[in-house]
Amino acid sequence: MAHLFHRLKLRGIIRISVRCKHGPEHWSVMRRKKLPKDKALEHFDEYYGSVFGKQWEEIRESLLIKKNKHIAVINNFSDAERAQSELQCLGAMHLKSMYNVFKENMKDQPKTKSIQSENVQNPMDTVIENTQLADIDSLYPEANTFPSQSLNSEEDEESLIQKTDALQPVKLQSIEADLNEIEIDTSRVIESSVDQCMLHEYVPSTKLKGLDGYILESDYYKFYNKGADFKVDIVKESTLPFPEHLHPFTFERESEATFPYPKRGSTGVSDYYLFDGGSLLPVLALDIKMGDVVLDMCAAPGGKALAILQTLMPRIVIANDVSESRANKIHSVAKQYLYNSSMEKMFCVTHRDARAIEDQDMYNKILVDVPCTTDRHSLHAYENNVFKPARVKERLQLPQLQSDILTNALKLVTVGGIVVYSTCSLSPVQNDGVVQVALKRAWEESDSVMVVKDMSEALSPLQYLYEFANIGSKYGHLVVPTLANNWGPMYFCKIQRVR
Q1: Which residues are catalytic?
Q2: Which one-letter DSSP state was computed for residue 379?
C-alpha cells in the first residue's frame, strides 16, 4: 500500500509528456497544406505565362520579392524644402527633372518602339480557348469523346465510314417471341399496394445543390471579349503633365537604396509619403488643374488621394471607399500628413458603394482604382487573400464589379472631364477587358461619348525607369515589375468624356 502511495505521489510531481496536436499556424501543418499564395502562383504561371511569354520569368521573380521599390512624395504640409534637401543627400532624384532630361535626349535620337503597339497580337484568344477546353475536361469524364474531336483528320473520317458500312441489318422479332427467351427481373417490379409517394427519391434532379450562381473559370476570361464590337476614338497624347507643387523622388534604375522612415516636421506631420512607383502614374494621368473637383472612388488606404492633394490645385478631393473600416484607413493617413482641421475644406472622406454614387455633374476628375486580384499581395499574404477557396466566386466576379464601378464613373464625370481607371493586376481581363465593356455600357446607358488617350509618346521618357508591357493592349498602359526596378504591376487608362 505504501509502495502504491509513493508511485501516485511521484506521478503527481513528474508529468509525462504527451504528443499534442499542432495548431493551424504551426510550420508542420502549413507545409502539408497548399496555401492561397501557392494557388495564386499556380494560376499566374498558367495564365500570365501564356500572356507574357518569356517576359513572365523576370516578372515572376520580381513579384516573389516581398519588398517592392518605393517612390517618395514630398508632403507640402511639412518642411518640404528640408525634406527635399535630405532626400537629395541620400542620392534620390526628382522624377520630374529626370523626365525632362530624358525627353530632351529623345529629341536627338531615333524614335524608339511604341509602348502600345497595334501590330502585337494579343494572346488572350489562345488563353480563352485553352480555358474553355480545361472546363470541358473538368466537367466531363476523360473517357467521353466529342464529334469535334473524332473528326479531326481524314483517317478518322475513313474509319467512321468503314464502321458504318460494317453495320449489318438486324432481323426484327415480335415481343411475344422474345418473352419466351428472356428472364424477367421481378425484383424491379413495384407492387400496386406499395405507397408510391416514396418514388420522388428516384426522380432525377434538374439542378445540383450548392451550385447556385456557379461560375466557370472560362466565363471570367470570356469577359475580355464582351463589347469587342464597340468602337471608340483613340487620341494620342504627347506630354505627361507634372504639377508644379508635386515633388516625387526616386533612386536611379538598379539602385538598391531605400528611403528611411519619414521624420515629423515642425508642423507635426510626416515629411513624405512612400508608395509603389507605379501608383504615381494614374495620378499624373489625371492632369490635375487649378480648381478641379476630384473623386477617388476606391481610395483606401489613401496614397493616391494624398498625392492628388499634394499638387495643391484641387478645390476639393473626395476620398471614398465602400466600407467604414477602409475609410478609417484614409482618415489615419490624413491625420499623419495633414496638419490642421482647415484641410477638411479641401479633403473629405466618405464610405459609399462606388456603384451607387449619384453625384451627377459634380466631378471633372475621377480616379477609379478598383478592387482587383492585387497580384503582388496575393503572392505573399495569407489573410485577406482573394485566392482563398471561400473567395473563388468573388475573384471570378471581379471584372463585373470593376466594370460596374467604371461605368458609373463615366456617367458621373462632367463633359470635358477625365476618368483614369487603374488596377494593380497583370490580367488583361481586369484591365483592357473591363475598359472595353464599361465604354460600351456608358454609351448605351447614358448616350455619353468618350475618347481614350494613347499616352505612349508621353510615357516614352520614363522607359529608363519603368518597364511597360507590350502585349497588344488596346486602351491602357501596363507597368510590369523588373529586377532592375521592382515597381508595379500597375495598369492605367485615361478616358475623356467629350459629350
Answers
A1: 424
A2: T
